[in-house]
Design goal:
Structural class: alpha+beta
Strand order of the largest sheet: 4-3-6-7
Distance between the termini: 8 Å
Oligomer: single chain
Largest sheet: 4 strands, antiparallel
Number of strands: 7
Order of helices and strands: HEEEEEHEE
Strand content: 35-45%
Number of domains: 1
Helix content: 10-25%
CATH architecture: 2-Layer Sandwich
Shape: globular
CATH topology: Double Stranded RNA Binding Domain
Length: about 90
């Protein structure tokens, strides 16, 4: 399974943002909208970062694979699901 397939199953989208840092270098971040990672009783907003959009996606996939994700955490249609350990960026 890849990030796009995971986002489709959750009914969400993959987001990539570019930001210019103080030293004028560009850094990219990637995440799936409205997906939090469960860490005991806490929820963590996780993202990936990299010098390219591809690196950010790879970092994000690495950071969340095997974790328990929560979609729509504070809504009536909240859903928890396990992210496969075989998750890839592409």
């Amino acid at each position: 399974m890849n990030l796009k397939e995971l986002a489709d199953i959750a009914g969400k989208s993959v987001n990539i943002y570019g930001t210019i840092k103080d030293d004028n270098t560009l850094i990219f971040t990637a995440s799936i909208s409205d997906i939090e990672i469960k860490d005991g009783p806490c929820l963590i907003s996780q993202w990936g970062k990299g010098k390219t959009p591809e690196q950010a996606l790879q970092d994000y996939a690495f950071n969340i694979k095997g974790e328990t994700a929560v979609s729509n955490a504070f809504q009536n249609d909240r859903r928890e699901f396990k992210i496969p350990t075989s998750l890839t960026a592409f």
